[in-house]
Amino acid sequence: MRERLRLIRKELGLTQEALAQKLGIGKSALSMIETGRASLSERNKNIIVQELNVNPEWLETGQGQMFFEQRPEAVFTNRTDRKLPTQSVPLYNIEGTAGLVPLFLDRESVRPVDYIHIPNLPRCDGAIYVVGDSMYPLLKSGDIVLYKQVSGIENIFWGDMYLLSIDIDGEEYVTVKYIQKSENEGCVKLVSQNPHHADKEVPVERIRALAFVKASIRMNSIR
Question: In three state form, how does the secondary structure of the chain look?
Answer without folding.
Answer: CHHHHHHHHHHCCCCHHHHHHHHCCCHHHHHHHHCCCCCCCHHHHHHHHHHHCECHHHHHHCCCCCECCCCHHHHHHHCCCCEECCCEEEEECHHHHCCHHHHHHCHHHCCCCEEEECCCEECCCEEEECCCCCCCCCCCCCCEEEEEECCCHHHCCCCCEEEEEEEECCEEEEEEEEEEECCCCCEEEEECCCCCCCCEEEEHHHEEEEEEEEEEECCCCCC
